[in-house]
Amino acid sequence: MGMSVTISVAAADDKDAVEQILKLQYLCYQSEAEVYGDYSIEPLTQSLDSIRAEVAAGTVLVARLGDEVVASVRGTVDADGTARIGKLIVHPRMQRHGLGGRLLDAIEQHLGAAGTAKCFQLSSGHRSEQNLQLYRKHGYAAVDTQRVNERLTRVTLAKDAPASAFVTSA
User: Fold this and answer.
1) Which of 112, 113, 120, 138 has the highest CB neighbour count under 10 A?
2) d(CA 14, CA 31)
3) DSSP per-residue codes, the chain
4) CB-based contacts of 122: which residues, under 8 Å, 6+ apart?
5) pLDDT-based confidence at 153, cuts 50/70/90?
6) Regarding beta strands 119-125 and 82-90, do their DSSP bridges make them parallel or antiparallel, or are they unpaired?
7) Is pLDDT above 60 for 168?
8) What's the pTM?
9) Phi-psi bin for 115: left (phi > 0), alpha (psi -120 to 50), beta?
10) How far apart are the C-alpha atoms of 128 and 131, rounded to whole Å?
């Protein structure tokens, strides 16, 4: 019988999870760096302390297969109600099995549960077609593009949070 993947919130004091996120992030962003010909991208140069700070300051979900972190995503909600989602990573051997979509749904639910998220926003490089396809499948649409350099254009995608996810004051 196979093991099932569980999704949970990463705790800031879970040193093992934070270290596994760093290693997984490094593994997952190699292909992005190759696509854009740039191995100096932030996910490949981010420090362990910086990831610890992100875990402490925002919401970080991890998907585990047993004790192994096989996927992760991060999110925060701004004062204006924009839930920003980033660094959705899935171990290469676990890709194309729906785990990225499950994690995306889970972070949306988690960020929307507080009732302050009015919309969800994320970004991807213009050549990252699998990422863009996943985001479009989950209801995201391009709202902005920004040329970062001669090799990379960042595409920002967004979608409204469900009406039940936020409350407006009268």
Assistant:
1) 120
2) 27
3) -PPPEEEEEPPTT-HHHHHHHHHHHHHHHHHHHHHHT-TT-HHHH--HHHHHHHHHHSEEEEEEETTEEEEEEEEEE-TTSEEEEEEEEE-GGGTTSSHHHHHHHHHHHHHHTTS--SEEEEEEETT-HHHHHHHHHTT-EEEEEEE-SSS-EEEEEEEEPPGGG-----
4) 84, 85, 86, 88, 135, 140, 156, 157, 158
5) very high
6) parallel
7) no
8) 0.90
9) left
10) 6
Nearest to 28 by CA among 170, 114, 130: 130
Per-residue b or e along 19-54, where b marks 16 or more CB atoms closer than 10 Å to that residue's CB: ebbbebbeebbeebeeebeeeeeebeebeeeebbeb
User: 28-72 pLDDT, tens per residue?
Assistant: 999 999 999 989 999 999 999 999 999 999 999 999 999 999 999
Contact 83, 44 (CB under 8 A): no
> Tokens representing 120?
């969800």
Q: What's the sign of the alpha-carbon dihedral 56, 60, 66, 71?
A: negative
